Amino acid sequence: MNKPMGQLLRRKVVKELLAQRGDALVVGGLGAPAWDITNAGDHDLNFPLWGAMGGAAMIGLGLALAQPKKKVLVVTGDGEMLMGVGALATIAVQKPRNLSIVVIDNERYGETGMQETHTAHGVDLAGMAKAAGIVQTFMVRTQAELNRLKQHIYAGEGALFAQIKVDPEKLPLVLPPRDGALLKNRFRAALLGADAAHQ
Ligand SMILES: Cc1ncc(C[n+]2csc(CCOP(=O)(O)OP(=O)(O)O)c2C)c(N)n1
Ligand SMILES: [Mg+2]
């Protein structure tokens, strides 16, 4: 029998994780995770994706390799991660210490009507990450487990992968800016300085 659905509330989870972000670079997977990171406070060093389903972890990997002194956090959905699951193998091989991937797992494709994803049927993304060779993996179902994750997420001991089981609640949208060029330019300016923004 499948385990019960997640109880944690995604907006609270993401807010707690981002409270300690400092100057970390934060990538939000398309849809609800992008709204979650925006709900926690829009930020110049947020890079919310409006598309590119399946690409969030790899965008995070590229950033982590290009900016080894910065912490990089990817917050994405179970559906998005399942689409790009091969990324786990590449991240395991590249071993970026500064990269954390957090999957907000509501066991649903929330944005398109709450269809069940494979995680509703036992697919264990944290187990897949571990088997790929990512050393730090977490399955989080409780506040105590979330608190433990918080101690490691920005420690730079990565790569780190966490799957957080959350309630499949429907929430009001909290949208980031919609203009991709604006998002890219403000991110580059905040990271590299104003001169780099438009290059
Ligand atoms: C290539 C591609 N396929 C499908 C979609 C439609 N789509 C957008 S968001 C989404 C569901 C995302 O689910 P998940 O990552 O689990 O996020 P949740 O909303 O459940 O938090 C889908 C199927 C898309 N944008 N691009
Ligand atoms: Mg989902």
Features of this protein?
binds magnesium ion, Rossmann fold, 199 residues, binds thiamine diphosphate, globular, two-stranded antiparallel sheet, 18% strand, alpha/beta
The unique ligands bound to this protein are: thiamine diphosphate, magnesium ion
Number of helices: 8
- Could you give me the name of the CATH homologous superfamily? Thiamin diphosphate (ThDP)-binding fold, Pyr/PP domains
Query: End-to-end distance, in Å?
Result: 53 Å
Q: Give the second-level CATH assignment, the architecture.
A: 3-Layer(aba) Sandwich
Sum up the overall morphology in one term: globular
For the record, the count of structural domains works out to: 1
- Kindly provide the radius of gyration, computed on alpha-carbon positions and rounded to a whole number of angstroms: 16 Å
Mean pLDDT: 96
Q: Give the low-pLDDT segments.
A: none
The level of helicity is 25-40%
Q: Walk across the major sheet and give the strand order.
A: 2-1-3-4-8-7
Largest β-sheet summary = 6 strands, parallel
Beta-strand proportion = 15-25%
Give the CATH level 1 class.
Alpha Beta
Which structural category do the helix and sheet elements fall into?
alpha/beta
Could you walk me through the main structural features you see in this protein, from its secondary elements to its overall organization?
This protein has helices at residues 10-19, 32-39, 56-66, 78-83, 87-94, 125-132, 143-152, 180-192, and strands spanning 25-28, 46-48, 72-77, 99-105, 108-109, 115-116, 136-140, 160-165. It is built from 8 helices and 8 strands; from the N terminus they run αβαβαβααβββαβαβα. Strand 1 (25-28), helix 2 and strand 2 (46-48) form a beta-alpha-beta unit. With 199 residues, it is an alpha/beta fold. It has one domain (10-196): 3-Layer(aba) Sandwich (Rossmann fold). The protein is globular. The protein has a 6-stranded parallel sheet with strand order 2-1-3-4-8-7, with helices on both faces.
